[in-house]
Amino acid sequence: MITLGSGDRGQGEPVDASRRLSRALLEFSGGEVTDVVELSATDLAMHGGSPVARRGDGVFVVGGGHSDALRLISHRSSWANRSLSEWLVAVAPDVVHFHDLAGVGADLVPLIRRAVPRAVMVLTAHDLLLACANSGTLVRASGQLCDARSSLECADCVAVQPVDIMLRDDFFRRLVGLFDVLLAPTTFAAERLSSWLGGRVVQVVRDCPVSEPGQSPRVIATGEGRCRIGFFGDLAPEGGLHVLLDALIELKGLDGHPVELEVFGSADDDAYWEDEIVPRFEELAGGSIRATYSGVFRPDDASAVMAMVDWVAIPTLGWEASPDVLMSALATGRPSLAGNVGGMREILDLTGAGRSVAVGSIGQWMDALVWATDPDNVPAWDEFHDMAVVPWSVRDVVDQHVTRYWGG
Amino acid sequence: MKLTRGSSLPGGNRRATGNLEYAFLYGDVCVAVGWSSLENMESGTWPTLNVYRFPRPDANRLVDLPEDYESGFVALSTGEGANTNEALVASVRKALLAMGVDGRPGGLADFTAGGDYSVGLLAGAVSRLPDGVDKARFAGLWDLLRLHQVERGDSDPSADSGPLLHIDHCLRVDASDLLVLSGWTSRSATIAALDLVPGQGSRDARLVLNVRPDVTSAAGPNYSGFVATIAGDVGVGGAVRVRATDGDRLTEMNVQVSSIKSSDPVEVVRELFQIATHPRDFMERLDNGEGDAIVELILDRNADEGRRAFTVQRMHDQADIDVSVIIPLFRRYDLLWNQFLAWSQCSRPDRIELVLVNDDPRHDVDCTELVDQLVGVFGLNVTLLANRVNRGYAASNNVGAKMAKGSTLLLLNSDAFLDDAESVFAGEALLAERADVGLVGALIHDADGLVIHQGLACTYLESRSSWFNYHPAIGFPMDPHVSDRTTVVDGVTGAVVMARRREFLDLGGFAEDFLVGDYEDSDLCWRVNESGKSVVILDALRAVHSERTSMSLVGGDELRERISLFNTWLHARRWRPFLQARFGGPVEVQP
Questions:
Q1: Which domain does B398 fall in, by range?
Q2: How many domains are there within chain B?
Q3: Which residues of A touch B (CB under 8 A)?
Q4: CATH code (residue B230)
Q5: Is residue B254 scored above 90 in pLDDT?
Q6: Over residues B318-338, mean pLDDT
Q7: Is this complex's ipTM strictly greater than 0.90?
Q8: A323 has pLDDT over 70
Q9: CB contact B341 to A (< 8 Å)
Q10: Contact A175/B448, CB-based, under 8 Å?
Q11: How many CB atoms lie within 10 A of CB B259?
Q12: B446–chain A Cβ distance below 8 A for any pair
């Protein structure tokens, strides 16, 4: 089996999901899956004719980057593609499971289809990149959640010509036709993708959960509230951290009970960081209602870092087709405060391990923070905490995948 | 408004500052309107200067000058000593900068192409000066311009009694021996050209009067714009003497000829069609010789055949090809990703041949490399042709058809994609079973499921004096139920159309004298009709199409509209009785 994630640095939800699933399949499939070749992409220049290279962690990489950003076509030369075809024939996979197209390049799909035509090809849509030109967020440039779409609206949203949206849609719809099985980790993502594909079946198979045991609650003093809130994720506009900070700033003016927000994640968007986040942090420095930036953390440390907080706040302004922070919170045993749409709402409804907040609403985030940190509501937190477990096991996920691999 | 450049001039405390508000070329006169803090307007490198100064209280307040300081200017600079308009513009710009006047980015150049309406622009420029400016002082400007015309020494001594004459463009199409003049003069004047080569004599021009509101406004109702065409080798020496005769009065002037050296019809029309003309008058222009000249250039361009015309790479050795899909390419090669992906999903790709015809030799390497990459990924049967010159959509299909291996052709725009590649076999079967059918067209829709095409018809547009193709039911929701129904129609678009290869070639393929790609499809349909066969839409043959993706790469909206007008002109000239009978036409009225 070949499984494809993406990204040179091995980060991001599709890569993590791909890696967890690969290991779980080898461990729990009962011999149904005996060999897994993990494939990713590198932005580093490779020899023009070399099909693959291998990283220290055993992951094979192909040349990445996009020569055609509209369709996510790679830079690979025709010579490299021919060598890659031969390599694929030699590997002779029974199953090829894509978790992402960006990076490895969408042209890899027809290449594999042709090189190993009998292999079952599976795609898990961890996001809606195929259906939405705005990075798969289904959020318009105006910030509005996108419910319906036309080529004109999409073109306006991402500032391209309508013809390019048409070409993009046409290409990806046909590309999906090359897969035998389509999967999505949430019902929300499955339904949206299915709708975009004119009703084609997209099956819900959940992502492999982190297999670490849940962490014990943070010890608090008598009379103290569950006042430590954590934000985990990239500091980017769509993450909605500025909304959460605005809610805290408003609360600071009201002088209520203490709220501590700890922010973890990388701040790669300089403009957002400088213009939107730093000034808000400055307003929230010190005092009983405060926010602190704690930097980035290693993926392997996610559970330990999350254990330091009481609540995981997910103020994202999008739908979260695959709510990985929420899933990590469940795996860690932490309740969440999360948006009331898309994959977040779905998982909260499924587990009951947290409270929904209207997306982008500063007022609702104020209410949620006041309620969550109120010392009188510690018993409610205890109930949420009891429900904060991933409702499916690694073995369940492996079984479901194996069934789809062999049963279609 | 950016007001200062911050530079100081030696010998004075006053900062050099100012602004250029309007500027344009009027023949070889440059007119600049603005204000400057400097008194000396003759500094710098004005070639020859006439300046009107006047107070600009609005500007004076901005830079703390006395209220009545004459900072405003209207300056006329002539091109003496400057061989080209570009040189004149450059020298004027330099002079303005020396005066501390900021040339707005593009401000000067913006108007250089607007010579047609320069009289109106001057009037507009003056009228747009702010309140408080004594506009009566500019009443003499028009006289100044006329005076300049006389001062150039081009006019005959009797010019005072002759009609006013101005030439905006004097273009010579070298490859066609055609001189095209545009300008304005008396509505009742005739135009003739006298070659400056001794003994040539005069040649009368074919004239079309052209609506010019700016001329009417400036010179009165007896004056009009014109476009004159003169065939022959006149103007070869680089200049002609133009004569306007109105009754027994005449005016003459020497005019420099701009030669259009290129024989590429697209490049030629790019120059010729910059002469602004009302669409109705445009048809008459084409009748006066420009149309035939363009047709001749197109046919000359496409005259080469075989290896002198194009190269061929047969990238497959498949013998049993049933359908050849001919796809002309012009620049947007990325569309091939969609095409290859679509055709790779056909159940019998071995029966299909993609005949790709690159019609842009400038990007031959890019095209070849991409096709190589695509063949490596998808492995389809590909024949790649590369035209040695840009031959247009019709000729590209024709060479593709000649080199195709399939007995059935699908002519396909590069930006049109079959909903289901399998449907090509339904079209093939229809042509095999129905000898009465000559062409099979597609139901074409846009990305959102609205009909773009389910047949083609013509309509006569009075405002354009010609018949235009249109697509009935465009914009209607498409019936989602696919059937094998066929519908007989007048015509179909050439964007997606199937034909028997032998018949297509026997009919002569697409007519190649249409420019870029337009109207050759209806022309083919009318010929198929004349041959006694019908043209049908096959409901099962469906495609999504973004119209004119490649056409939009040819030039701006104005040029494309004029190319379209040229094609309607040619189409109407060829099919007038047929179009009149089938679609109706103009009611003959004698004014």
A1: 306-582
A2: 3
A3: 68, 70-71, 73, 76-79, 81-82, 85, 107, 110-111, 113-114, 150-152, 162-163, 165-167, 169-171, 174-175, 177-178
A4: 2.60.40.10
A5: no
A6: 95
A7: no
A8: yes
A9: yes
A10: no
A11: 15
A12: yes
Structure tokens at A70: 């509209």
Assess if residue B281 is contained within a domain.
yes
Residue B588 maps to a domain: no
> Are B334 and A163 an interchain contact pair (Cβ–Cβ within 8 Å)?
no
Among A390-394, B178-182, B209-213, B408-412, the least confident range:
B209-213
Residue B140 sits in the same domain as residue B181? no
Question: How wide is the angle at C-alpha A108 spanned by C-alphas A107 and A112, nearest 5°?
Answer: 125
Could you tell me the pLDDT band of residue B153, with boundaries at 50, 70 and 90?
A: very low
Which of B301, B316, B333 is the last residue in one of the domains?
B301
Taking an 8 Å cut-off on Cβ atoms, the answer to whether A174 and B377 are in contact is no
- Model pTM? 0.78
Query: How many helices and strands in chain A, by DSSP H and E?
Result: 15, 16
Domain locations along chain A: 2-209+393-407, 228-387
Decide if B345 touches A, using CB distance below 8 A. Answer: yes
- A174 contacts on B by Cβ (under 8 Å): 338, 341-342, 345
Residue B1: band (very low, low, confident or very high) from pLDDT cuts 50, 70, 90: very low
B109: buried, middle or exposed (CB in 10 Å: 19+, 13-18, 0-12)?
middle
* Mean pLDDT on A158-177: 91
Do B43 and B169 share a domain, yes or no?
Answer: no
Q: Is B315 found in the same domain as B225?
A: no
Give residue-wise pLDDT tens across range B259-279: 899 999 999 999 999 888 888
Q: Average pLDDT for residues B477-487, to the nearest whole number?
A: 94
Per-residue pLDDT at B69: 85
The beta strands (E) that lie in B232-322 are given as: 239-246, 249-256, 258-260, 310-314
Residue of chain B nearest A169, judged by CA positions: B447
Quick check: is B590 in a domain?
A: no
The reply to whether B219 and B205 lie within a common domain is: yes
Contact B467, B565 (CB under 8 A): no
Q: Is 80 exceeded by the pLDDT of residue A50?
A: no
Of A110, A151, A166, the CB nearest to B341: A110
- What's the average model confidence in pLDDT over A298-302? 79
Of B337, B373, B378, the CB nearest to A114: B378
Structure tokens of A163? 């013809």
Distances (CA, A) of A247 to A213, A288, A295, B570: 33, 14, 21, 69
The contacts of residue B214 (CB under 8 Å, 6+ apart) are B116, B117, B118, B119, B120, B121, B123
Portion of chain B with pLDDT greater than 90, in percent: 49
Give alpha helix (H) positions in A151-297: 151-158, 162-176, 187-196, 241-254, 270-271, 278-283
Which tokens sit at A306? 């999350």
pLDDT of residue B146: 47
Per-residue pLDDT, averaged over A366-372, amounts to 97
Q: State how beta strands B239-246 and B249-256 pair.
A: antiparallel
Domain co-membership, B285 together with B311:
no
pLDDT in tens, B74-89: 777 766 555 556 666 6
**Measured between CA atoms, how close is A273 to chain B, in angstroms?**
33
Report the alpha-carbon distance of residue B296 to residue B277 in Å, rounded.
Answer: 22
Residue B175 shares a structural domain with residue B135: no
pLDDT in tens, A83-111: 899 999 999 999 999 998 888 889 999 99
CATH level 3 topology of A228-387: Rossmann fold (3.40.50)
Boundary (domain end) residue, out of B301, B317, B333: B301
User: How far is the alpha carbon of B555 from chain A, nearest alpha carbon, in Å?
Assistant: 17
**Does the CB of B313 have a partner CB in chain A at under 8 Å?**
no
Domain A2-209+393-407: assigned CATH number: 3.40.50.2000
